[in-house]
User: Which sequence fits this backbone?
């Protein structure tokens, strides 16, 4: 009769699939990976615009200051505007900040992509 399965068939199908323990371990591992990716994404998403805008503002300020024609007495004061800063042993430049901001945006995109792939996997 169609529609009725033998008890053997149901047992064979259950044995072919992964065990519940294995599925739980796999789910836990993917949950930890997804948590880490989401955490990195949120931090990078918050910091990226700040770093990028700071670099762009600094670069724009240097461009404006460089194009200003002022009296010689004031010209030496403009030389004190920093072109680079050493902060905590790290050298900061406008182009470096812009590059770091773009890198952080790429990290956000990568984390979102990996999280989407994980959600389809699990």
Assistant:
């Amino acid at each position: 009769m169609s529609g009725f399965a033998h008890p053997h068939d149901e047992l064979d199908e259950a044995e072919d699939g992964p065990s519940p323990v294995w599925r739980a371990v796999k789910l836990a591992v993917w949950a930890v990976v997804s948590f880490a990716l989401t955490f990195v994404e949120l931090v990078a998403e918050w910091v990226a615009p700040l770093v990028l805008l700071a670099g762009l503002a600094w670069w724009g300020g240097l461009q404006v200051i460089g194009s200003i024609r002022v009296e010689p007495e004031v010209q030496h004061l403009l030389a004190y505007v920093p072109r680079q800063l050493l902060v905590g042993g790290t050298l900061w430049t406008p182009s470096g900040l812009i590059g770091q901001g773009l890198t952080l945006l790429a990290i956000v995109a990568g984390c979102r992509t990996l999280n989407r792939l994980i959600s389809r996997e699990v």
Helices lie at 7-16, 20-67, 72-78, 94-121.
